[in-house]
């Protein structure tokens, strides 16, 4: 591909060089640059790509794309853009032959519920005969092929590369968890979504966004780029989303598990891990069974139902996939093969609202005692730590406060921050997460429920020494085998 062809959709300034030259690949990491590559200088919050121009040229870059004024004496092309982040998104799409325009992309955003909702949509589409791509927190998927990921939403260049793989693999629908970071950092710039879902907005990521208003505005960008939005109006910010969409004359549908909405429920009945409910849209009704407990999961289901119904799927077709949905690390039942007299649930809940949801749900079907095990991540919003301490101990009969992903922080200091919010004496502190899980199992009696919160699908722990393998399912299985002498 010629550089001129790649730049077609951009407003650019040629500082020096020849745009009729051939280009190899695009990179924004100077360490990955090879001969005849383009190097795009991205200004990050910790690292500025402009500082690595010399390294990129040394590695073979022949075109440098900047947004700052630079002085480059080497014989390379220098192109200036107003915004290189947006530029990277446009360049990435063009380089991979605009695969985003060949997919039907459904976006899901919100503080909690993104992963569950996305997996529900994927399962429903697959049960209706479609090959589906999924981009999200747990992993990326192209059909049944799983691709590990470091971010909920990849950087724009990798995102368009993933879209290209999906198109080449005959994927028609792509379901995306769209994070507030990705919206604020223009990773999804230029993408038009067939439908998008707003789940809720609660406290999270303020270490990045600084204010709740900034957090909301980042999320709202998704709905500005969607043909239709499906909005949870049980959340006060969902109500605000609808008003802001009306001001833009954008189409939307509302959903609610509590009152009147375009998509609502009737006759809800919980049967331990199953929830049976009747969904109503317009003049249509359908009885559905969701094999995941909790009102918040019914809300997630309504978001998924609303998005697919707006894309002309019938309620009967939607029901086919919903009844068999399973989401790794989201209210996931563990150790069922051991025939335990108690239940063990693993859940990703790592925010105050998320922890409240899973514990309130578990409490509904706990006949014995509810044992909660949780911690908080390091290098993240510290203000939620005492809140989680209070919620965890108030909603459980007994809590074990432990380490999560401490990252560069002292695990003991994080736990002390959590304990500051606790007003009861129904807890113990066990810093080592493996020992904490073993203790919870030792404490559990018949009809008790253990909720292990915070890490969910993760199979690692991030310490100040780096990332180590840590799969809670393995910890549980190994200890149960040890107790039984297997």
Protein described:
This protein has helices at residues 3-6, 53-58, 84-95, 114-127, 156-168, 180-184, 206-209, 212-224, 236-247, 295-310, 315-322, 352-365, 384-395, 411-419, 433-443, 472-483; strands spanning 13-16, 26-27, 38-40, 63-66, 77-80, 104-109, 132-135, 140-142, 145-147, 173-177, 195-198, 228-232, 251-256, 263-271, 274-281, 284-290, 332-334, 343-347, 370-374, 398-401, 427-429, 449-453, 460-463, 466-469. The protein has 486 residues and is α/β, with parallel strands linked by helices. The protein is globular. It starts with a helix and ends with a helix. The mean pLDDT is 94.
Global outline? globular
Strand content: 15-25%
* Number of H- or I-type helical stretches: 16
Rounded mean pLDDT score: 94
Topology, element by element:
Elements: H1 3-6, E1 13-16, E2 26-27, E3 38-40, H2 53-58, E4 63-66, E5 77-80, H3 84-95, E6 104-109, H4 114-127, E7 132-135, E8 140-142, E9 145-147, H5 156-168, E10 173-177, H6 180-184, E11 195-198, H7 206-209, H8 212-224, E12 228-232, H9 236-247, E13 251-256, E14 263-271, E15 274-281, E16 284-290, H10 295-310, H11 315-322, E17 332-334, E18 343-347, H12 352-365, E19 370-374, H13 384-395, E20 398-401, H14 411-419, E21 427-429, H15 433-443, E22 449-453, E23 460-463, E24 466-469, H16 472-483
Parallel strand pairs: 2-3, 3-4, 4-5, 6-10, 6-11, 7-10, 11-12, 12-13, 13-14, 18-22, 19-20, 19-22, 20-21
Antiparallel strand pairs: 1-5, 7-8, 8-9, 14-15, 15-16, 17-18, 23-24
Helix pairs in contact: 3-5, 4-10, 4-11, 12-13, 13-14, 15-16
């Amino acid at each position: 591909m010629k550089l001129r062809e790649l730049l077609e959709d951009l407003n650019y300034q040629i500082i020096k060089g020849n745009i009729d030259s051939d280009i190899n690949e695009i990179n924004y990491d100077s360490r990955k640059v090879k001969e005849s590559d383009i190097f795009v200088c991205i200004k990050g919050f910790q690292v500025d790509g402009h500082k690595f121009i010399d390294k990129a040229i040394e590695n073979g870059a022949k075109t440098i794309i900047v947004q700052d004024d630079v002085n480059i004496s080497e014989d390379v092309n220098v192109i200036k853009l107003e915004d290189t982040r947006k530029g990277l998104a446009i360049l990435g799409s063009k380089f991979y032959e605009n695969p985003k325009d060949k997919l039907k992309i459904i976006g899901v955003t919100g503080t909690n519920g993104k992963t569950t909702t996305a997996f529900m949509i994927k399962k429903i589409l697959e049960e209706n005969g479609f090959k589906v791509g999924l981009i999200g927190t747990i992993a990326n998927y192209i059909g049944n092929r799983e691709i590990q990921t470091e971010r909920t939403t990849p950087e724009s260049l990798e995102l368009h590369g993933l879209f290209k793989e999906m198109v080449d693999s005959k994927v028609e629908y792509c379901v995306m968890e769209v994070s507030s970071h990705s919206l604020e950092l223009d990773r999804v710039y230029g993408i038009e979504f067939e439908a998008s879902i707003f789940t809720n907005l609660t406290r999270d990521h303020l270490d990045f966004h600084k204010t709740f208003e900034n957090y909301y505005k980042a999320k709202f960008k998704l709905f500005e780029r969607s043909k239709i939005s499906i909005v949870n109006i049980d959340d006060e910010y969902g109500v605000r989303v609808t008003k802001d969409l009306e001001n833009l004359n954008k189409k939307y549908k509302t959903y609610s598990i509590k009152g009147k909405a375009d998509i609502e429920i009737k006759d809800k009945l919980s049967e331990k891990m199953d929830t049976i409910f009747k969904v109503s849209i317009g003049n249509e009704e359908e009885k559905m069974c969701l094999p995941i407990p909790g009102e918040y999961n019914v809300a997630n289901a309504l978001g998924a139902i609303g998005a697919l119904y707006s894309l002309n799927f019938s309620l009967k077709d939607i029901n086919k996939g919903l009844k068999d949905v399973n989401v790794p690390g989201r209210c996931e039942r563990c150790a069922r093969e051991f025939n335990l007299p108690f239940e063990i649930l693993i859940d990703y809940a790592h925010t105050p609202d998320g922890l409240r949801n899973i514990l309130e749900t578990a409490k509904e079907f706990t006949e014995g005692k509810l044992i909660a095990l949780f911690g908080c991540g390091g290098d993240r919003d510290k203000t939620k730590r005492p809140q989680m301490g209070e919620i965890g101990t108030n909603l459980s009969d007994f809590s074990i406060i432990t380490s999560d992903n401490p990252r560069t922080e002292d695990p003991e200091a994080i736990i002390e921050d959590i304990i500051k919010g606790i007003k009861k004496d129904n807890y113990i502190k066990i810093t080592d997460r493996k020992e904490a899980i073993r203790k919870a199992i030792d404490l559990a009696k018949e009809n008790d429920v253990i909720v292990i919160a915070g890490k969910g699908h993760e199979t690692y722990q991030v310490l100040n020494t780096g990332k180590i393998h840590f799969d809670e399912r393995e910890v549980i299985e190994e200890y149960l085998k040890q107790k039984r002498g297997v």
